[in-house]
Amino acid sequence: MIVVDSNVVAYCWLNGSKTAIAQSVRLQDSDWHVPVLWRSELRSILGGYVRRGDLSVKQATAVMQRIEAELQGQEHIVESDDVLKLLDTSDLSAYDCEFVALARAVGTRLVTEERAILKAFPRESLSMDAFVR
After folding, report:
1. Which of its termini does the chain have fewer beta carbons within 10 Å around, N or C?
2. What is the pTM of this model?
3. Where does residue 9 rank: exposed (0-12), middle (13-18), buried (19+ CB within 10 A)?
4. What is the DSSP string of 8-70?
């Protein structure tokens, strides 16, 4: 079991330069957990693809539905107190702290490419490359 952030989810299901490594992470451990927040963040990512013309609304909807089905039952509500404590000890956004808080709550690591998270919480997080190694 691992916690993954929204970008790792996007890298896995949307073709790009980091798709192969994200899919390697998924092959190594497919038990991905996320805070409910991931849905809004992924919708925002998909919105960028739609605005750039890389995906149609219909395609973006299909991608979102597929990922929702894949992550069903692995979404968590994160305790506000846990997020606020992390905010107090870092310069990260509340959004980023939700992923770290979830990793702590379920007793696993957060796989992320966010350098700020990796720097602020090195015990709780690791990059996709580090995870695959």
Report:
1. C
2. 0.94
3. buried
4. HHHHHHS-STTHHHHHHHHHH---EEEETTHHHHHHHHHHHHHHHTSS-HHHHHHHHHHHHHH
Q: State the pairing for strand pair 32-35/75-76.
A: parallel
Q: pLDDT tens-digit profile of 63-110?
A: 999 999 999 999 999 999 999 999 999 999 999 999 999 999 999 999
Give the closest residue to 22 by CA, choosing from 118, 129, 125: 129
In whole angstroms, give the CA distance from residue 37 to residue 33. Answer: 11
> How many domains is the chain built from?
1
- Nearest Cα neighbor of 119 from 76, 89, 94 is 89
Residue numbers of the domain that contains 128: 2-132
Structure-token pair, residue 116:
């700020």
Residue 72: which CATH number? 3.40.50.1010
